[in-house]
Amino acid sequence: MQQEPAQHQKLKELIPMHSSIIAGAGLIGLEMVEAFKKRGQTGRGDMDVTVVEMADHILPSLLDKNMAKIVERELEANGVKIILGERVEEILGRDGQIKGIITSAKRNIDSDFIVLGTGVRPNSEIARDAGVELGYANAIKVDEYMRTNIPDIFAAGDCATARNYITNKDTYIPLGTTANKQGRVAGENVVGGNTKFRGIAGSAITKVFDLFIGKTGLTSEEGIRNGFDPVEELIESITRAGYYPGNKPIWIKIVADRKSGRVLGSQIVGGEGVKERIDLIALALLLKADIRDLASFDACYVPPASPVWEPINIAASQTAKLVI
Amino acid sequence: MQQEPAQHQKLKELIPMHSSIIAGAGLIGLEMVEAFKKRGQTGRGDMDVTVVEMADHILPSLLDKNMAKIVERELEANGVKIILGERVEEILGRDGQIKGIITSAKRNIDSDFIVLGTGVRPNSEIARDAGVELGYANAIKVDEYMRTNIPDIFAAGDCATARNYITNKDTYIPLGTTANKQGRVAGENVVGGNTKFRGIAGSAITKVFDLFIGKTGLTSEEGIRNGFDPVEELIESITRAGYYPGNKPIWIKIVADRKSGRVLGSQIVGGEGVKERIDLIALALLLKADIRDLASFDACYVPPASPVWEPINIAASQTAKLVI
Questions:
Q1: Nearest in space to A101 (alpha carbons), one of A36, A21, A47, A28
Q2: B321 shares contact with chain A (CB less than 8 Å)
Q3: Please, which of A92, A167, A303, B317 could form a disulfide with A241 given CB 3.0 to 4.6 Å?
Q4: Chain B closest CA to A102's CA: distance in Å?
Q5: What three-state secondary structure class fits A124?
Q6: What is the pLDDT of residue B2?
Q7: What is the pTM of this model?
Q8: Portion 167-226 of A in contact with B at CB < 8 A
Q9: With bands split at pLDDT 50, 70 and 90, how would you rate the model's confidence at A17?
Q10: Could you report the predicted ipTM of this complex, rounded to two decimals?
Q11: Assigned architecture for domain B125-190
């Protein structure tokens, strides 16, 4: 979504003051956390920022708890307060001004600014009312050609379902990358083409302060729900040779199926090189790679961009030990 | 190879003066070019550095001519002189001091320091004399278990051959990554293990001034020599969203087989994110991926690490148009 400069400016001017609450520690919520914290530092002194998340860890759609811990430490090091396992239950106001919230645990927090980053739902009512079939999460149900149930009506992007290429089930993960690819397929087919959308792996990434945080494929829990027998290992490595300036930590978890060895997904948190490594795993998922392929492909080495053993090779070797 | 600090120091002290010549614009040659140029700048004023390469472009083992041009511009922008298509034929001296060179085109260049970076040969004589069979490029011939022709004698690393997993032929590309992986396999098998080395894709990377330069798999020319019918396309993209600070250019070429669509190799030059993208292609090569897989896998997007369309997706889409 593109913000008009005027609205953008208006939001900036609205930004407080001395305290804000972000409800929901998802992708949008955490981007707001950083923006507010930095705006405070550069603009009008330090600002209290509290994020309230109903799950027991932040970024629940991207990370397992042990990966989320790494990001929670980064947030706390930057002065962000995190409240987990509680929901915003009531917003308090006085004289038309926001004054604070009450959480599901009856915690009362004063604040003059609240952002709700609690999720996205497809805006599909108009389609439904026109007789277009809805599917997963009430998104418009499309096939791999982006066709709906009604001839000559196509759908793509944040209103439509997408097929997960690991589980082969419909899902709803509204992201610009998917919208872009689906839109191209729909466009080609609308004018008589015969192009297929290959589906998604649920690849997503964000950056919070100095950490990139990415996910693709399934977590172990999602693997179990889809009939796999997942194993996983979490490793910590570095993004450059030990002696090279600017070296940053990187944490990688790769999930694989115990019986078949098939790669199921990955979560990566680190200072750099996260996006491209998530992409590598996303490709591995499309190609139904074995965890031993990831352990032994011919990765290259240059001191300013990796240690001698590519961290993906290391992480996959560790997970591979758990595969029978 | 690890330099002893004492030797390292000695080399630093030897570094001139006012001019140096690097014979051979390969990986080692170009690393020396940068080191000398920077040493000159930070140490004792500017230094003339001239690189003499017998091929018609630099980094001939890594890059095609059109990719090499990008790196040649970077070298020239940093004040490096490049002489192509000529060999160092004679080294001139006087009173035990180096005075310059004469090239195969009878060009006479004054210089007080010359580095020969003209290639690597396996140090395999002792093995040959002991009856161990040599193979490609006189490296010790090993199978996938790192066994030689003599029972109980194993070889690994810069003295040994490695199987290319695209062509399935033996090759010799002595790099630390391969030595590391082969050494581990040999070690396990020496003590009774049954581990296979999966082979190499010829993945290699270097950094020269502000550019990373990587290659994996085959160039089109190498593809033809191995019975493929290669097509390729070179694209220029960026490493971050257009508006994001620190955005850098990246050039990607992907080679595929016209008939089968199989990915054959890639060359990438750019300011960041080159190593991980070469790794992604190296994995694609191991998995015998189709160029259309690379065009459509679910890459993730975050403004500080890519444009919305991952550059690999873009490059592969362009090459895919040439596949029948």
A1: A21
A2: no
A3: A303
A4: 33
A5: coil
A6: 47
A7: 0.94
A8: 175-178, 180-181, 197-207, 212, 214, 216
A9: low
A10: 0.93
A11: 3-Layer(bba) Sandwich (3.50)
